[in-house]
Amino acid sequence: MKNLGGLYAALITPFHENGEVNYEQIQNVVEFLIQKGIDGFYVCGSTGEAFLLTMEERKKILETVIAKNRGRVSVIAHVGNIGTDLSVELGKHAKAAGADAISSVTPFYYKFSEKEIINYYYALADRTQMPTIVYNFPSLTGFALSIKDVDELAKNPNIVGIKHTSLDLYALERFKKAHPRLTVFNGHDEVLLYGLIAGADGGIGSTYNFMPHKFRKLRQFVLQGKIKEAQNVQHEINDVIDYVSKYGAMRVAKEFLRDWGFDCGNCRAPFTPLTDAEKAELKTVFIKKVRE
Predict the structure, then answer these.
(1) Rounded CA gap, 160 and 126, in Å?
(2) Gap between the Cα atoms of 230 and 78, Å rounded
(3) Which of 74, 137, 207, 263 ranks highest by number of CB atoms within 10 Å?
(4) Distance of alpha carbon 211 from alpha carbon 182, whole angstroms
(5) d(CA 62, CA 289)
(6) CB neighbours of 96 closer than 8 A, spacing ≥ 6?
């Protein structure tokens, strides 16, 4: 299996003014990020507005990314859904399309039991026969993986990693120490440095869409043992993430990509567009804090 470590953009989904997916702009953003040195793409995840897309749109977006990528970097397809069969359908499509791995957020809304969630991942991994990455996002799903859960999941050889979108870096460190074969991704951009120090093999992030150069520099400093220099870069990143927290990751990512030259439209309803005043504020942030 391909080594899945590194920095992955949680790819945004561009839309036309009429709300349809802008597949041409997806290709442009993919090429831009590859040229900026990104290690891979996490397609149709939270940042990609997965649950505002139809099943057919999710399939076509993945196909578009894979075709443009041409095997240059890794592609992880987020196939998560509430229902097992729906996720398996997307997982089988991802395999046929040529994705390197699949991933899924824990099933949500119905407050599934721990056993039901474990069964879900086993079914997804076994029925697709794809390298499967568990997406741990407790603040949105209401379920936090425990070390006991990871011990159980790791028994399945097709389950190869965890995307840990949680500020609990103690849990990240415990997961990686107990199961070094698993590829563990840091999921919150504002703590990438500390996730890497705790043992993460890389990161998957929203803001990698528009400042991959900063994240590459941070990771390189960590690999060189230059922690103070890496911390300074994390401070720069977090000065920008303050605005992400204020306006929302997808809105900000699309606005900053517009500043890079890619019109990705607005987020899908019920998200609302940024106002002209908010756009003007972010333009200043881009010039002073992102582009450099």
Answers:
(1) 12
(2) 29
(3) 207
(4) 27
(5) 31
(6) none
Of 213, 191, 217, 238, give the one whose Cα is nearest residue 291.
Answer: 213
Structural domain boundaries of the chain? 6-290
Phi, psi of 87 (to 5 degrees): -65, -40
From 163, 214, 217, 254, active-site residue: 163
Count Cβ neighbours within 10 Å for each residue of 203-236 and write b for 16 or more, e otherwise.
bbbbbbbbbbbbbbbbbebbeeeeeeebeebbeb
Is 163 known to be catalytic?
yes
For 257, the enclosing helix (H) or strand (E) is helix 249-260
Is the bond preceding residue 131 a cis peptide, omega within 30 degrees?
Answer: no
Instruction: Kindly name the residue from 135, 194, 208, 243 that is annotated as catalytic.
Output: 135
pTM of the model: 0.98
Written as six digits, the tokens of 154 are: 């790791």
pLDDT in tens, 168-179: 999 999 999 999
Q: What is the pLDDT of residue 1?
A: 67
The span from the first CA to the last CA of the chain, in angstroms, equals 36
Q: Which residues pair with 43 in a beta bridge?
A: 77
pLDDT tens, 202-221?
A: 999 999 999 999 999 999 99
Residue 26: its H or E element: helix 23-35
CATH topology of domain 6-290: TIM Barrel (3.20.20)
Distance CA 246, CA 232 (A): 22
What is the distance, to the nearest Å, from the Cα of residue 152 to the centroid of all Cα atoms in its chain? 24
What percentage of the chain reaches a pLDDT higher than 90? Answer: 99
Rounded Cα distance, 164 and 136, in Å: 5
